[in-house]
Q: What sequence folds into this?
């Protein structure tokens, strides 16, 4: 199994990881074992559509067929000749995913690398040996105990859409909201739609896909408007709210640009860059204006 790191930021790219042979064998075994949590034949395969959003422990979500983006497909076609990830604090600080490629089975095992799992030499990372702590002087990555998605022979399996979205753009595979969905969205107790007629008339595929996600994810049910506004401020996104009989309601604006900004935030298309904390738009990895 060959291993690669996906680096985010303004210059998104993929690098092959040059790994000691003994360690590579261990990692291969570990990643293959992790993949079985999603490939287990006893799991019920649930197509990724409509209400199939939160599978239980007996289910796994699947998109089939699934086309790998060129960013990931190209390195697997030329693993030996692909650029190696150098010892560079800045690059390692922006690694947000490690994946292992098994050519024999046409299998890719993805693991998201959250911010806390990126180690840089400027901080004080401690390791213990023989009961004595020493400072880790080289940058590095901490791998987790589970994978987040598995691609195999044209199919993509996963359990969490949120984690999978950190790696792959799967928005085009998600359902679009119906007229009834938009009405249900507008009728939510903590939402204030400025003009529902205009929202229906001007809602194309882009808007309807995100409204469907917002409804099915329960983001407006699981978080208060004040919490959402506070989080939005961290990304420079302005969420307006109005008070209606003592209830704080999120304004869904009529202005197309403002509407897109609100829906992008609620659909979690903004994220903090791998370790720097810089705000990006998830699909484009384009740095937002400060």
A:
């Amino acid at each position: 199994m060959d291993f690669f790191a996906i680096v985010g930021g303004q210059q998104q790219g993929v690098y092959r990881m040059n790994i000691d042979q003994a360690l590579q064998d261990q990692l291969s075994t570990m990643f293959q074992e992790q993949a079985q949590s999603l490939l287990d034949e006893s799991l019920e395969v649930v197509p990724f559509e409509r209400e199939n959003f939160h599978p239980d422990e007996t289910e796994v979500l699947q998109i089939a067929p699934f086309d790998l983006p060129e960013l990931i497909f190209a390195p697997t076609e030329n693993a030996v000749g692909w650029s190696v990830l150098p010892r560079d604090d800045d690059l390692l600080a922006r690694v947000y995913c490690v994946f292992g490629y098994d050519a024999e089975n046409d299998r890719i095992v993805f693991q998201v690398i959250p911010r806390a799992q990126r180690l840089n030499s400027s901080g004080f990372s401690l390791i213990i040996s023989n009961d004595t702590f020493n400072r880790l002087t080289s940058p590095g990555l901490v791998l987790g105990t589970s994978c987040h998605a598995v691609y195999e022979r044209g199919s993509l399996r996963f359990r969490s859409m949120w984690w999978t979205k950190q790696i792959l753009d799967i928005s085009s595979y998600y359902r679009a909201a119906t007229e009834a969905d938009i009405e249900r969205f507008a009728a939510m107790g903590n939402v204030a739609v400025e003009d529902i007629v205009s929202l229906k008339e001007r809602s194309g595929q882009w808007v309807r896909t995100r409204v469907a996600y917002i409804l099915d994810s329960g983001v407006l049910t699981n978080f208060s408007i004040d919490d959402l506004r506070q989080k939005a401020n961290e990304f420079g996104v302005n969420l307006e709210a109005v008070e209606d009989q003592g209830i704080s309601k999120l304004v869904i604006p009529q202005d197309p640009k403002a509407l897109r900004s609100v829906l992008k935030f609620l659909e979690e298309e903004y994220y903090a860059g791998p370790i720097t904390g810089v705000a990006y738009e998830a699909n484009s990895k384009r740095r937002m204006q400060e």
